[in-house]
Amino acid sequence: MADRARALTPETLGAWLVKATGAAPSTIAHVRAGFTGVETWCVRPTYRTALVAAGQPVLLWVSGTEADLPAGIYAHGRTAGPAADGVMPVALEPLTDPLPRSELVGHPDLSTMEVLRMPAGSNPSYVTPGQLEALAAMRPELLTV
């Protein structure tokens, strides 16, 4: 049996996208604190986590339907080393203005983001290089970390 083609390779990775639940008290606390003190993020060990290396872009997605914390991208940064045992080392900064899901779903370059197609999918998820470029066009600060 031949190996199935993997959705993610080093060439198709634009940025990691780690997820948090908007209703979780820890997520609310992290957002309020501007992600100060966040040095790691829990991820599911899969072939994807074996691709994590220091210095890769990472985005933080908040999921859910909370009125005061709508789904979308809230932080950006870099990985701080390889993932191990379900933990990804990260350095995150809040986006000055989060990118809500509502701005992404109809966007011609972003509507196919894995997190939009499969919201309950893998953690970490990812965005492609082209999707990261489109996100940076909407929020130039994504290029500064």
From TrEMBL:
<dbReference type="InterPro" id="IPR015947">
    <property type="entry name" value="PUA-like_sf"/>
</dbReference>
<protein>
    <submittedName>
        <fullName>Uncharacterized protein</fullName>
    </submittedName>
</protein>
